[in-house]
Amino acid sequence: xxxxxxxxxxxxxxxxxxxxxxxxxxxxxxxxxxxxxxxxxxxxxxxxxxxxxxxxxxxxxxxxxxxxxxxxxxxxxxxxxxxxxxxxxxxxxxxxxxxxxxxxxxxxxxxxxxxxxxxxxxxxxxxxxxxxxxxxxxxxxxxxxxxxxxxxxxxxxxxxxxxxxxxxxxxxxxxxxxxxxxxxxxxxxxxxxxxxxxxxxxxxxxxxxxxxxx
Amino acid sequence: xxxxxxxxxxxxxxxxxxxxxxxxxxxxxxxxxxxxxxxxxxxxxxxxxxxxxxxxxxxxxxxxxxxxxxxxxxxxxxxxxxxxxxxxxxxxxxxxxxxxxxxxxxxxxxxxxxxxxxxxxxxxxxxxxxxxxxxxxxxxxxxxxxxxxxxxxxxxxxxxxxxxxxxxxxxxxxxxxxxxxxxxxxxxxxxxxxxxxxxxxxxxxxxxxxxxxxxxxxxxxxxxxxxxxxxxxxxxxxxxxxxxxxxxxxxxxxxxxxxxxxxxxxxxxxxxxxxxxxxxxxxxxxxxxxxxxxxxxxxxxxxxxxxxxxxxxxxxxxxxxxxxxxxxxxxxxxxxxxxxxxxxxxxxxxxxxxxxxxxxxxxxxxxxxxxxxxxxxxxxxxxxxxxxxxxxxxxxxxxxxxxxxxxxxxxxxxxxxxxxxxxxxxxxxxxxxxxxxxxxxxxxxxxxxxxxxxxxxxxxxxxxxxxxxxxxxxxxxxxxxxxxxxxxxxxxxxxxxxxxxxxxxxxxxxxxxxxxxxxxxxxxxxxxxxxxxxxxxxxxxxxxxxxxxxxxxxxxxxxxxxxxxxxxxxxxxxxxxxxxxxxxxxxxxxxxxxxxxxxxxxxxxxxxxxxxxxxxxxxxxxxxxxxxxxxxxxxxxxxxxxxxxxxxxxxxxxxxxxxxxxxxxxxxxxxxxxxxxxxxxxxxxxxxxxxxxxxxxxxxxxxxxxxxxxxxxxxxxx
Lengths: 214, 718
Fold this sequence. Notes:
The complex is a heterodimer of chains A (214) and B (718).
Chain A: E1 12-16, H1 23-33, E2 39-43, H2 50-63, E3 65-69, H3 73-86, E4 93-96, H4 101-104, H5 110-131, E5 135-137, H6 145-151, E6 154-161, E7 164-169, E8 176-179, E9 182-185, H7 187-194, E10 211-212
Chain B: E1 2-7, E2 13-19, E3 22-27, E4 34-39, H1 44-54, E5 60-68, E6 78-85, H2 91-105, E7 111-114, H3 120-128, E8 140-144, H4 147-151, E9 159-160, E10 163-164, H5 169-183, E11 187-190, H6 195-201, E12 213-216, E13 219-223, E14 226-230, E15 233-235, E16 240-243, H7 248-265, H8 269-273, H9 277-291, E17 307-308, H10 309-315, E18 321-322, E19 327-337, H11 340-347, H12 378-398, H13 404-428, H14 438-461, E20 464-470, E21 473-478, H15 487-498, E22 502-515, E23 522-531, H16 533-539, E24 547-550, H17 561-577, H18 580-595, E25 606-609, H19 622-632, E26 642-647, E27 658-660, H20 661-665, H21 676-691, H22 698-707
Parallel strand pairs in B: 8-11, 11-16
Antiparallel strand pairs in B: 1-2, 2-3, 4-6, 4-7, 5-6, 8-9, 9-10, 12-15, 13-14, 18-20, 19-21, 19-22, 20-21, 22-23, 23-24, 25-26, 26-27
């Protein structure tokens, strides 16, 4: 069932998780489930707090993560700059949540923040290409969110629905929703699996058809 | 010697040096401040480029290549460009311009700047070695005006050194002039710096020369997530201005404490007095680092080390906690590690330059496995003199021949240092701390937790049971099934083993730990207890001080004195009766006093720090009502300042809900002008805290009050 959530490719993927904060962890854990290489988490705004990582990713996925926290824009910039020297060739993922938030803090003058955000976006693009590694970023509702979205190679939008989590975007077909019990299927999913059976245009998801443990 | 530095309009510093009977001014036109610049990976071509860029700048007096260490961990100095400036006070401007030039030509972060954001006067002392203390005592004059009068610009109520100055504005002004002439003070302690312009408007110059300068307008800021307010700042020639409203240190550490910190930090009194504790610590660190060839970084770029989630989890744990059992425990000893965190820093060498060093491949820090270099750490050297001085003062304080005056002076200094020691650990984790490092913060915590575990195991092995433990304190009671070795003896053995004094604070006849309000288990920091006779005698306290309160209403700054006093009385009842019903019976007498309307309104005043402007509060809170009332009365209150009010009618919204403290002082609120039910509710809650260790909650207290029971004898005693 894992093919129903987006697969991350060696490019910069922007995930708009403002309506569904847990989507970040869900996409990461799905990716790491298939990967063996180490992953780097450039943290901001405490998204990588150990309790949250353990809760959402589980111990196994956490074992492959290295985390460093940025408390200011300057530190974030230096951490991203250090990635080329930190990442191993086998790296499987770079995650940078709330990417621009530290730059939007009042302790960084605007003109410096503008320059650093632009440089960080270029750097992450270069890292994904040079190391051939997926880079997953999110942005808070700060002045730079639009820049981050624009600079990404691919955009995903996560929504928390009544049926669970839904992720839309380039190359993602909404076949299911994730909720606390597992994966909830949609009509297109079953049509895909079983072929159309002549039911007349049922648009809403088939519910509840959870597949526990997925 | 140079106790005050004025900066003239042309940027020339003027040093004021104390003489036997006054002070003399000496301009220093040759002084040049300097900013240092280093390049990423020490690439000197960027420094050459910057030197070319800055050469035509008229602000720049000289450019020189020097070598300094980039940070405390650097073994070797790096090439830096020293940019000497013509005027004191232009360093930040130059730094901003350097940053703008850099961004035009190079990637961000190509250049790192140092020695940018130092107070000009502190910088001058650092650069020239000027000693900011006079070799005689500071002559001081204290001028104060009540808030309400100040709001109206009325100086008739001005007091000089606490004495009313004349009753009329004219009389007050003449009195101030006479006192300044006669005493020729070095320091003016003002209830508000606004007195500087107000007196100037009336022809009174507070300085040793005519005129004054406005250093900064009033502003609101956020620090550690709390909103603060900086009143406007003024400077007068030749005299130090200390604004009581904006001097946390004067409030907490007194003048003797301030003087000591001026000596330790090398920062002049006027600038130090308005510093936060973090500011003082930074000044001491900047001076120590300068001595080690490390300038003060401007925008700190040092990052956290990459960590596994498991290590981050281990590192993120706070101090040691041992969940207490809610309830009452008899015969409890308290053991405290003296200044645990600062002593861990010094005795175990935990410092930004020693944690995770490159030269040792050891796992010295428990749980985290960081190495600790054996060299003397920077932070230990910063704190060492403070720890030693404080310890020596405590010895002097205990000496039989110490006079009361001397004791007060020592207390002030002991408190001043206490604040710095208390904050040094947290400051390591502060994102803008110039010499802070998150791994140091984590390592201090990890070592401290290990020491607490060592102490816990030692007392348990000696037959004691731990009933509570938190950060640096343990509460132990005899295990009924075992024999005990004397607790003082065990503490001495732990002290020898770990190298940090584990002190036997005293014995409680009983301690009561309050349960959490909305969860099971006990709250870690809400308890009260009664010291045993020998502990009261040993501490020199009076019988009135025999109770210890933590976290409950009697200890909270925001509690009205009437509520706090009633709770202390309920604790005394609790002590006598150990019966929740008796305590609630006793509560009835306080409720009756309240309902008779005979409580002095000043005892009902609630002091609260406000975090927003009145119009920014979403709900109709009491703080908002107090701010609105202050505004109606022409009194300015900004976020970060406090308001003190009596609740007049809690059912109303707007300014009629409260009365401000000075109104009730004037008697406007006398005659029962307070909201009885509001305060009754506060009393019930304070009572609940006292009976909660016995298993009662607020509902039971209220039911008991409603349904009643024959008053026990105890409620009429005392």
